[in-house]
Amino acid sequence: METRFFLDVEGKAANLLRQADALRAPVDVRKVARHLDAQVHEQTLEDVVSGVLVIRGDERHIMVNKAHHPNRQRFSIAHELGHLVLHHKQGDNLFIDKHLSIYQRVGSATSIAYQQPGSSTTPADEREANQFASALLMPKELLLFATKDRDLWDELDIATLASQFGVSEQAMTIRLRQLGILDSEMFH
To answer: Does domain 3-137 correspond to CATH entry 1.10.10.2910?
Structure first.
């Protein structure tokens, strides 16, 4: 992802957190969703499906897999919010991974039946939504403050930070590397 776009995504996530009054760890991602008039629903989805964003008229619905760990659900909600903020233009939209076997819903945004075709998102859209989710759940400002006095890291430090921010250790490690806080050679 080019640097300019990375900074734009970071800025959009930071602005949204301020507008939603949610700049504290762990970020209340459901509060952010409410700020954007998006309803979050925990549903039974195929295991390979973490989340789905359905926009139909004025309705915005995020479905997350109720079988997934709460941290994964939080990341999925933030990811779908990324699609809403970064990729939604006009009209009805469905955002899901193209490679997954899921289909567009029939009827209301929360009906159970599905029909083809699936999402029209691109791999680039998915990367951008992931970056937005990382910036939303692990805001640069809060991470820099939380790590300002630390030079050496071990797995326990990563686990503690991940717990504090309500994300997986893998997501925290990736984010710390993105921000240049953690050396890319550590914790492969």
So the answer is: yes
Which tokens hold the place of 99?
């490679």
Secondary structure of the chain as H, E, C letters: CCHHHHHHHHHHHHHHHHHCCCCCCCCCHHHHHHHCCCEEEEECCCCCCCEEEEEECCEEEEEEECCCCHHHHHHHHHHHHHHHHHCCCCCCEEECCCCCCCCEECCCCCCCCEECCCCCCCHHHHHHHHHHHHHHHCCHHHHHHHHCCCCCCCHHHHHHHHHHHCCCHHHHHHHHHHCCCCCCCCCC
| CB contact set of 124 (below 8 Å; sequence gap of 6+) | none
By the 10 Å C-beta count (0-12 exposed, 13-18 middle, 19+ buried), 33 is classed as buried
Structure tokens at 2: 């080019």
Burial of 23 (0-12, 13-18, 19+ CB in 10 A): middle
Classify residue 34 as left (phi > 0), alpha (psi -120 to 50) or beta: alpha
Average pLDDT across each block of 10 residues of the chain; the chain has 188 residues. List them in order: 72 97 98 97 90 88 94 95 83 49 38 39 82 97 92 89 96 93 69
The domains of the chain are located at 3-137, 139-188
Longest dimension (CA), the chain: 54
